[in-house]
Amino acid sequence: MISYDEARSIIQSTVQALPKTRTRLEKLHGMVLGEPVQATHDLPLFDNSAVDGYGVSLADVRGANEGVPVSLPVVEELRAGDSGPDNLPTNTAFKIFTGAVVPIGVDAVIMRENCIEEDGRVRILREPKAGENIRRRGEEYLRGQEILPAGVRVSPAVVGLLASLGQASFMVHKKPTVAIITTGSELVKPGKALSPGKIYDSNSYALKAACDALGIDDLLPLSCREDLSETRKVLGLGLDFADLVISVGGLSAGDHDYVKQVYEELGVKTLIYKVAMKPGKPVYFGTFMHRRKNKMQYVFGLPGNPVSALVTFNQLVKPAILKMMGLENAIYGQVVSHVKAKLSRELRKSKGRTELVRAVISTSGGELYAHPTSGQDSHMLGGLALANGLILFPQESDVLAQGSIVAAEVLNWYS
Ligand code: AMP
Ligand code: MG
Fold first, then answer.
1. Separation of CA 385 and ligand 2 centre (Å)
2. CA max distance for the chain
3. Which residues line ligand 1 (CB under 6 A)?
4. What CA–CA distance (Å, rounded) separates 116 from 118?
5. Considering Cα of 256, then 257, then 259, then 264, what sign does the dihedral take?
6. What is the pLDDT of residues 295-318, one digit of tens each?
7. What are the residue ranges in the chain where pLDDT is below 70?
Protein backbone atom coordinates (compact mmCIF):
# COMPACT_ATOMS: atom_id res chain seq x y z
CA MET A 1 0.00 0.00 0.00
CA ILE A 2 1.41 3.41 -0.93
CA SER A 3 1.31 6.52 1.23
CA TYR A 4 -1.11 9.38 0.80
CA ASP A 5 1.70 11.70 -0.34
CA GLU A 6 2.97 9.16 -2.89
CA ALA A 7 -0.54 8.73 -4.26
CA ARG A 8 -0.87 12.48 -4.72
CA SER A 9 2.44 12.76 -6.48
CA ILE A 10 1.71 9.82 -8.81
CA ILE A 11 -1.57 11.47 -9.80
CA GLN A 12 0.10 14.85 -10.20
CA SER A 13 2.85 13.51 -12.44
CA THR A 14 0.58 11.26 -14.52
CA VAL A 15 -2.26 13.61 -15.35
CA GLN A 16 -1.65 16.04 -18.22
CA ALA A 17 -3.49 19.17 -19.26
CA LEU A 18 -6.14 18.71 -21.95
CA PRO A 19 -5.65 20.36 -25.35
CA LYS A 20 -6.48 24.00 -25.92
CA THR A 21 -9.57 25.27 -27.59
CA ARG A 22 -10.90 28.67 -28.63
CA THR A 23 -13.80 29.48 -26.33
CA ARG A 24 -16.37 32.26 -26.29
CA LEU A 25 -16.32 34.80 -23.47
CA GLU A 26 -19.64 33.58 -22.09
CA LYS A 27 -18.15 30.13 -21.44
CA LEU A 28 -14.74 31.15 -20.08
CA HIS A 29 -15.49 31.44 -16.38
CA GLY A 30 -13.52 28.81 -14.43
CA MET A 31 -11.38 27.77 -17.42
CA VAL A 32 -7.61 28.25 -17.58
CA LEU A 33 -5.89 30.49 -20.14
CA GLY A 34 -3.86 28.45 -22.62
CA GLU A 35 -1.90 31.44 -23.96
CA PRO A 36 -0.73 34.77 -22.61
CA VAL A 37 -3.11 37.59 -23.41
CA GLN A 38 -1.89 40.88 -24.89
CA ALA A 39 -3.65 44.21 -25.03
CA THR A 40 -5.13 44.62 -28.50
CA HIS A 41 -5.42 48.36 -27.93
CA ASP A 42 -4.50 50.91 -25.30
CA LEU A 43 -6.51 50.77 -22.09
CA PRO A 44 -8.15 53.17 -21.48
CA LEU A 45 -8.77 53.62 -25.19
CA PHE A 46 -8.79 57.43 -25.02
CA ASP A 47 -8.45 60.21 -22.46
CA ASN A 48 -11.76 60.31 -20.62
CA SER A 49 -13.33 61.89 -17.60
CA ALA A 50 -13.37 60.13 -14.22
CA VAL A 51 -16.18 62.31 -12.88
CA ASP A 52 -19.17 64.43 -13.84
CA GLY A 53 -17.92 68.02 -13.99
CA TYR A 54 -16.50 70.79 -16.12
CA GLY A 55 -13.56 70.52 -18.47
CA VAL A 56 -11.33 73.56 -18.47
CA SER A 57 -7.97 74.79 -19.66
CA LEU A 58 -5.54 75.55 -16.81
CA ALA A 59 -4.66 78.89 -18.40
CA ASP A 60 -8.29 80.00 -18.13
CA VAL A 61 -8.76 79.24 -14.42
CA ARG A 62 -5.43 80.23 -12.93
CA GLY A 63 -5.79 81.67 -9.40
CA ALA A 64 -9.48 80.78 -9.04
CA ASN A 65 -10.65 80.59 -5.40
CA GLU A 66 -13.84 81.01 -3.43
CA GLY A 67 -13.23 84.75 -2.98
CA VAL A 68 -12.30 85.35 -6.62
CA PRO A 69 -14.02 82.65 -8.69
CA VAL A 70 -13.55 82.41 -12.45
CA SER A 71 -16.71 82.38 -14.51
CA LEU A 72 -16.72 80.67 -17.93
CA PRO A 73 -19.49 80.07 -20.49
CA VAL A 74 -20.47 76.40 -20.84
CA VAL A 75 -20.37 75.92 -24.59
CA GLU A 76 -20.97 72.21 -25.00
CA GLU A 77 -22.12 69.08 -23.16
CA LEU A 78 -20.09 65.88 -23.63
CA ARG A 79 -21.56 62.53 -22.64
CA ALA A 80 -20.09 59.03 -22.52
CA GLY A 81 -20.36 57.64 -26.03
CA ASP A 82 -20.22 61.02 -27.82
CA SER A 83 -17.37 61.23 -30.28
CA GLY A 84 -16.56 64.69 -28.84
CA PRO A 85 -15.64 68.07 -30.44
CA ASP A 86 -12.12 68.75 -31.67
CA ASN A 87 -10.91 71.03 -28.92
CA LEU A 88 -11.88 73.50 -26.23
CA PRO A 89 -12.08 77.16 -27.31
CA THR A 90 -10.17 79.57 -25.01
CA ASN A 91 -12.07 81.03 -22.08
CA THR A 92 -14.90 78.49 -22.23
CA ALA A 93 -15.80 75.30 -20.36
CA PHE A 94 -17.29 72.00 -21.46
CA LYS A 95 -19.81 70.25 -19.27
CA ILE A 96 -18.49 66.70 -19.26
CA PHE A 97 -19.82 63.41 -17.86
CA THR A 98 -17.99 60.32 -16.53
CA GLY A 99 -16.54 58.24 -19.37
CA ALA A 100 -16.86 60.99 -22.01
CA VAL A 101 -13.91 61.73 -24.32
CA VAL A 102 -11.74 64.52 -22.91
CA PRO A 103 -10.93 66.70 -25.94
CA ILE A 104 -7.70 68.50 -26.74
CA GLY A 105 -7.34 71.68 -24.69
CA VAL A 106 -9.04 70.32 -21.59
CA ASP A 107 -6.31 70.04 -18.93
CA ALA A 108 -8.52 69.14 -15.99
CA VAL A 109 -12.08 68.20 -15.15
CA ILE A 110 -13.39 69.92 -12.03
CA MET A 111 -15.98 67.92 -10.13
CA ARG A 112 -19.46 69.25 -10.46
CA GLU A 113 -19.72 69.46 -6.64
CA ASN A 114 -16.96 72.10 -6.62
CA CYS A 115 -18.59 74.43 -9.16
CA ILE A 116 -21.73 76.50 -9.44
CA GLU A 117 -23.55 76.50 -12.77
CA GLU A 118 -26.16 79.13 -13.57
CA ASP A 119 -27.47 80.81 -16.71
CA GLY A 120 -25.20 78.89 -19.03
CA ARG A 121 -22.03 79.78 -17.13
CA VAL A 122 -19.99 77.91 -14.56
CA ARG A 123 -18.21 79.48 -11.61
CA ILE A 124 -14.97 77.72 -10.76
CA LEU A 125 -14.15 78.07 -7.05
CA ARG A 126 -10.59 76.73 -7.00
CA GLU A 127 -7.65 76.16 -9.31
CA PRO A 128 -7.44 72.51 -10.44
CA LYS A 129 -4.27 70.46 -10.78
CA ALA A 130 -3.04 69.52 -14.24
CA GLY A 131 -4.69 66.24 -15.31
CA GLU A 132 -7.17 66.26 -12.42
CA ASN A 133 -9.94 63.67 -12.96
CA ILE A 134 -8.67 62.68 -16.39
CA ARG A 135 -8.11 58.96 -17.04
CA ARG A 136 -5.29 58.87 -19.55
CA ARG A 137 -5.19 56.77 -22.67
CA GLY A 138 -2.99 53.69 -22.09
CA GLU A 139 -2.39 54.42 -18.40
CA GLU A 140 -3.29 50.82 -17.49
CA TYR A 141 -2.03 48.92 -20.56
CA LEU A 142 -0.38 49.88 -23.81
CA ARG A 143 -1.27 48.05 -26.99
CA GLY A 144 0.79 44.85 -27.30
CA GLN A 145 1.64 44.69 -23.60
CA GLU A 146 1.08 41.32 -21.85
CA ILE A 147 -1.93 41.57 -19.60
CA LEU A 148 -2.25 38.00 -18.29
CA PRO A 149 0.11 35.01 -18.48
CA ALA A 150 -0.97 31.55 -19.61
CA GLY A 151 -2.21 29.39 -16.72
CA VAL A 152 -4.46 31.97 -15.08
CA ARG A 153 -7.84 30.60 -14.05
CA VAL A 154 -10.60 32.81 -15.40
CA SER A 155 -12.35 34.54 -12.49
CA PRO A 156 -15.22 37.01 -12.91
CA ALA A 157 -12.63 39.82 -12.86
CA VAL A 158 -10.61 38.09 -15.59
CA VAL A 159 -13.78 37.71 -17.68
CA GLY A 160 -14.34 41.45 -17.33
CA LEU A 161 -10.75 42.30 -18.28
CA LEU A 162 -10.85 40.00 -21.32
CA ALA A 163 -14.18 41.44 -22.46
CA SER A 164 -12.73 44.96 -22.24
CA LEU A 165 -10.21 43.96 -24.92
CA GLY A 166 -12.99 43.55 -27.44
CA GLN A 167 -12.27 39.97 -28.54
CA ALA A 168 -15.15 37.51 -28.46
CA SER A 169 -13.08 34.37 -27.75
CA PHE A 170 -9.80 33.26 -26.16
CA MET A 171 -7.61 30.13 -26.08
CA VAL A 172 -8.17 28.04 -22.94
CA HIS A 173 -7.66 24.41 -21.97
CA LYS A 174 -10.64 22.13 -22.49
CA LYS A 175 -12.57 20.99 -19.46
CA PRO A 176 -12.80 17.23 -19.03
CA THR A 177 -15.93 15.31 -19.86
CA VAL A 178 -16.73 13.19 -16.81
CA ALA A 179 -18.64 9.96 -16.23
CA ILE A 180 -19.83 9.27 -12.69
CA ILE A 181 -20.69 5.63 -12.20
CA THR A 182 -22.37 4.35 -9.06
CA THR A 183 -22.26 0.65 -8.29
CA GLY A 184 -24.49 -1.28 -5.91
CA SER A 185 -27.70 -3.27 -5.97
CA GLU A 186 -28.81 -1.55 -2.75
CA LEU A 187 -29.14 1.92 -4.25
CA VAL A 188 -32.45 3.71 -4.84
CA LYS A 189 -32.88 7.24 -6.19
CA PRO A 190 -34.20 9.83 -3.72
CA GLY A 191 -37.91 10.42 -4.30
CA LYS A 192 -38.62 6.69 -4.76
CA ALA A 193 -39.85 4.35 -2.02
CA LEU A 194 -37.31 2.10 -0.28
CA SER A 195 -37.85 -1.63 0.14
CA PRO A 196 -36.11 -3.51 2.99
CA GLY A 197 -32.32 -3.58 2.71
CA LYS A 198 -32.14 -0.69 0.23
CA ILE A 199 -30.63 2.76 0.85
CA TYR A 200 -30.72 6.02 -0.99
CA ASP A 201 -27.95 6.77 -3.45
CA SER A 202 -26.20 9.86 -2.12
CA ASN A 203 -22.86 9.57 -3.88
CA SER A 204 -24.02 10.30 -7.40
CA TYR A 205 -25.60 13.56 -6.22
CA ALA A 206 -22.68 14.56 -4.02
CA LEU A 207 -20.11 13.82 -6.74
CA LYS A 208 -22.12 15.62 -9.39
CA ALA A 209 -22.22 18.65 -7.08
CA ALA A 210 -18.46 18.36 -6.54
CA CYS A 211 -17.96 18.35 -10.32
CA ASP A 212 -20.35 21.30 -10.71
CA ALA A 213 -18.28 23.22 -8.17
CA LEU A 214 -15.24 22.83 -10.43
CA GLY A 215 -17.13 23.98 -13.49
CA ILE A 216 -17.56 20.58 -15.16
CA ASP A 217 -20.53 20.85 -17.49
CA ASP A 218 -20.34 17.71 -19.59
CA LEU A 219 -21.19 14.93 -17.18
CA LEU A 220 -22.65 11.49 -17.84
CA PRO A 221 -24.29 9.78 -14.84
CA LEU A 222 -24.31 5.99 -15.01
CA SER A 223 -25.18 3.23 -12.55
CA CYS A 224 -24.81 -0.51 -12.35
CA ARG A 225 -25.75 -3.32 -10.02
CA GLU A 226 -23.28 -5.81 -8.58
CA ASP A 227 -23.29 -7.95 -11.65
CA LEU A 228 -20.23 -8.78 -13.70
CA SER A 229 -21.66 -8.35 -17.16
CA GLU A 230 -23.54 -5.18 -16.23
CA THR A 231 -20.35 -3.79 -14.67
CA ARG A 232 -18.47 -4.55 -17.92
CA LYS A 233 -21.10 -2.82 -19.98
CA VAL A 234 -21.42 0.29 -17.81
CA LEU A 235 -17.70 0.86 -17.15
CA GLY A 236 -17.17 0.35 -20.89
CA LEU A 237 -19.72 3.07 -21.64
CA GLY A 238 -17.96 5.42 -19.23
CA LEU A 239 -14.54 4.75 -20.79
CA ASP A 240 -15.93 5.34 -24.25
CA PHE A 241 -17.47 8.68 -23.34
CA ALA A 242 -15.34 10.47 -20.79
CA ASP A 243 -11.91 12.05 -20.38
CA LEU A 244 -12.28 11.20 -16.70
CA VAL A 245 -14.18 8.20 -15.38
CA ILE A 246 -15.09 8.24 -11.70
CA SER A 247 -16.74 5.13 -10.35
CA VAL A 248 -17.79 4.77 -6.78
CA GLY A 249 -18.12 1.57 -4.76
CA GLY A 250 -17.44 -2.04 -5.66
CA LEU A 251 -13.71 -1.85 -4.94
CA SER A 252 -13.40 -3.70 -1.66
CA ALA A 253 -12.50 -7.33 -1.33
CA GLY A 254 -16.11 -8.54 -1.46
CA ASP A 255 -17.16 -11.39 -3.78
CA HIS A 256 -19.24 -8.94 -5.80
CA ASP A 257 -16.70 -6.13 -6.04
CA TYR A 258 -15.88 -6.30 -9.73
CA VAL A 259 -14.71 -2.80 -10.48
CA LYS A 260 -10.91 -3.20 -10.45
CA GLN A 261 -11.07 -6.53 -12.31
CA VAL A 262 -13.31 -5.06 -15.02
CA TYR A 263 -11.23 -1.90 -15.44
CA GLU A 264 -8.20 -4.10 -16.06
CA GLU A 265 -10.08 -6.39 -18.46
CA LEU A 266 -11.14 -3.31 -20.43
CA GLY A 267 -7.54 -2.15 -20.73
CA VAL A 268 -7.15 0.31 -17.89
CA LYS A 269 -3.60 0.37 -16.54
CA THR A 270 -3.68 0.31 -12.74
CA LEU A 271 -1.33 2.85 -11.16
CA ILE A 272 -2.77 2.99 -7.66
CA TYR A 273 -4.89 0.54 -5.72
CA LYS A 274 -5.16 1.12 -1.98
CA VAL A 275 -3.67 4.16 -0.29
CA ALA A 276 -2.66 4.48 3.36
CA MET A 277 -5.28 7.11 4.09
CA LYS A 278 -8.41 7.26 6.17
CA PRO A 279 -11.05 7.65 4.96
CA GLY A 280 -10.49 6.25 1.49
CA LYS A 281 -8.16 3.26 1.68
CA PRO A 282 -9.47 1.17 -1.24
CA VAL A 283 -9.12 3.99 -3.76
CA TYR A 284 -8.14 3.22 -7.35
CA PHE A 285 -6.42 5.25 -10.07
CA GLY A 286 -5.41 4.25 -13.57
CA THR A 287 -4.93 5.41 -17.13
CA PHE A 288 -6.74 4.32 -20.28
CA MET A 289 -5.55 4.88 -23.82
CA HIS A 290 -8.64 5.33 -25.97
CA ARG A 291 -7.34 3.91 -29.26
CA ARG A 292 -10.04 5.21 -31.60
CA LYS A 293 -9.96 8.72 -30.17
CA ASN A 294 -6.19 8.44 -29.70
CA LYS A 295 -6.21 10.09 -26.32
CA MET A 296 -5.22 9.33 -22.77
CA GLN A 297 -8.02 9.15 -20.23
CA TYR A 298 -7.93 8.86 -16.46
CA VAL A 299 -9.87 6.55 -14.24
CA PHE A 300 -10.67 6.80 -10.54
CA GLY A 301 -12.45 4.23 -8.44
CA LEU A 302 -13.62 5.71 -5.16
CA PRO A 303 -14.77 3.75 -2.12
CA GLY A 304 -18.56 3.65 -1.72
CA ASN A 305 -18.85 4.99 1.80
CA PRO A 306 -20.11 8.53 1.27
CA VAL A 307 -17.45 10.29 3.37
CA SER A 308 -14.68 8.25 1.73
CA ALA A 309 -16.07 9.05 -1.71
CA LEU A 310 -16.11 12.80 -1.09
CA VAL A 311 -12.81 13.03 0.78
CA THR A 312 -10.99 11.02 -1.91
CA PHE A 313 -12.69 13.19 -4.53
CA ASN A 314 -11.50 16.35 -2.86
CA GLN A 315 -7.96 15.18 -2.09
CA LEU A 316 -7.19 13.08 -5.18
CA VAL A 317 -9.69 13.65 -8.00
CA LYS A 318 -10.00 17.42 -7.68
CA PRO A 319 -6.26 18.04 -8.24
CA ALA A 320 -6.46 15.77 -11.30
CA ILE A 321 -9.42 17.70 -12.71
CA LEU A 322 -7.72 21.03 -12.10
CA LYS A 323 -4.57 19.77 -13.80
CA MET A 324 -6.58 18.51 -16.81
CA MET A 325 -8.12 21.97 -16.97
CA GLY A 326 -4.63 23.43 -17.24
CA LEU A 327 -3.77 24.47 -13.69
CA GLU A 328 -0.16 23.36 -13.33
CA ASN A 329 0.29 23.16 -9.59
CA ALA A 330 -3.14 22.07 -8.59
CA ILE A 331 -1.92 20.16 -5.54
CA TYR A 332 0.97 22.14 -4.19
CA GLY A 333 0.18 25.52 -5.68
CA GLN A 334 -1.69 28.36 -4.15
CA VAL A 335 -5.07 26.72 -4.64
CA VAL A 336 -4.79 24.64 -1.46
CA SER A 337 -4.81 26.75 1.66
CA HIS A 338 -2.91 25.14 4.49
CA VAL A 339 -3.34 26.50 7.98
CA LYS A 340 -1.92 25.79 11.42
CA ALA A 341 -4.53 25.61 14.16
CA LYS A 342 -4.79 24.71 17.83
CA LEU A 343 -6.47 21.37 18.36
CA SER A 344 -9.51 21.58 20.65
CA ARG A 345 -9.42 17.97 21.84
CA GLU A 346 -7.03 15.04 21.79
CA LEU A 347 -7.09 12.76 18.74
CA ARG A 348 -5.88 9.17 18.72
CA LYS A 349 -5.43 6.56 15.99
CA SER A 350 -3.13 3.67 15.20
CA LYS A 351 -0.02 4.33 13.08
CA GLY A 352 0.14 3.43 9.41
CA ARG A 353 -2.36 5.68 7.63
CA THR A 354 -2.72 9.43 7.12
CA GLU A 355 -6.04 10.44 8.57
CA LEU A 356 -8.04 13.36 7.25
CA VAL A 357 -10.08 14.44 10.23
CA ARG A 358 -13.18 16.51 9.45
CA ALA A 359 -13.09 19.71 11.49
CA VAL A 360 -14.53 23.14 12.03
CA ILE A 361 -11.78 25.74 11.86
CA SER A 362 -12.62 28.97 13.62
CA THR A 363 -10.95 31.89 15.34
CA SER A 364 -11.22 32.71 19.02
CA GLY A 365 -9.24 35.40 20.85
CA GLY A 366 -7.17 35.97 17.70
CA GLU A 367 -6.14 32.30 17.47
CA LEU A 368 -7.11 29.67 14.95
CA TYR A 369 -8.73 26.53 16.42
CA ALA A 370 -9.54 23.17 14.85
CA HIS A 371 -12.53 21.38 16.37
CA PRO A 372 -12.97 17.81 15.07
CA THR A 373 -16.62 17.29 14.17
CA SER A 374 -18.53 14.44 15.75
CA GLY A 375 -19.29 11.40 13.60
CA GLN A 376 -15.91 10.61 12.04
CA ASP A 377 -16.88 7.23 10.59
CA SER A 378 -16.77 6.98 6.85
CA HIS A 379 -20.52 6.40 6.51
CA MET A 380 -21.37 9.49 8.59
CA LEU A 381 -21.84 12.39 6.22
CA GLY A 382 -23.03 14.83 8.90
CA GLY A 383 -19.51 15.43 10.21
CA LEU A 384 -18.30 16.31 6.72
CA ALA A 385 -21.39 18.39 5.94
CA LEU A 386 -20.60 20.68 8.90
CA ALA A 387 -16.83 20.76 8.41
CA ASN A 388 -14.87 23.56 6.77
CA GLY A 389 -11.48 21.91 7.14
CA LEU A 390 -9.54 18.66 7.27
CA ILE A 391 -6.89 18.09 9.94
CA LEU A 392 -3.93 16.15 8.55
CA PHE A 393 -3.17 13.48 11.16
CA PRO A 394 0.22 12.19 9.91
CA GLN A 395 0.68 8.54 8.95
CA GLU A 396 3.23 7.72 11.63
CA SER A 397 1.68 9.55 14.59
CA ASP A 398 -0.81 7.98 16.93
CA VAL A 399 -1.75 10.94 19.08
CA LEU A 400 -2.33 14.64 18.59
CA ALA A 401 -2.52 16.33 21.99
CA GLN A 402 -5.24 18.75 22.95
CA GLY A 403 -3.90 22.28 22.53
CA SER A 404 -1.14 21.26 20.11
CA ILE A 405 -0.71 23.06 16.82
CA VAL A 406 -1.85 20.87 13.93
CA ALA A 407 -1.76 21.22 10.16
CA ALA A 408 -5.10 21.50 8.42
CA GLU A 409 -6.44 22.24 4.97
CA VAL A 410 -9.33 24.55 4.38
CA LEU A 411 -12.03 22.43 2.75
CA ASN A 412 -12.61 24.01 -0.62
CA TRP A 413 -14.78 22.35 -3.24
CA TYR A 414 -14.18 25.04 -5.85
CA SER A 415 -10.44 25.15 -6.47
P1 AMP B 1 -18.74 -0.46 -1.40
O2 AMP B 1 -17.56 0.44 -1.57
O3 AMP B 1 -19.47 -0.71 -2.69
O4 AMP B 1 -18.38 -1.69 -0.69
O5 AMP B 1 -19.74 0.33 -0.48
C6 AMP B 1 -19.38 0.72 0.82
C7 AMP B 1 -20.57 1.31 1.56
O8 AMP B 1 -21.01 2.47 0.88
C9 AMP B 1 -21.78 0.39 1.59
O10 AMP B 1 -22.41 0.55 2.86
C11 AMP B 1 -22.66 0.92 0.48
O12 AMP B 1 -24.02 0.65 0.68
C13 AMP B 1 -22.38 2.38 0.54
N14 AMP B 1 -22.57 3.01 -0.76
C15 AMP B 1 -22.02 2.59 -1.92
N16 AMP B 1 -22.43 3.36 -2.94
C17 AMP B 1 -23.24 4.30 -2.40
C18 AMP B 1 -23.98 5.39 -2.93
N19 AMP B 1 -23.94 5.67 -4.24
N20 AMP B 1 -24.70 6.15 -2.09
C21 AMP B 1 -24.74 5.87 -0.77
N22 AMP B 1 -24.07 4.86 -0.20
C23 AMP B 1 -23.32 4.07 -1.00
MG1 MG C 1 -20.98 -1.94 -3.23
1. 22
2. 97
3. 182-184, 186-187, 199, 201-204, 248-252, 303-306
4. 7
5. negative
6. 999 999 999 999 999 999 999 999
7. 329-336
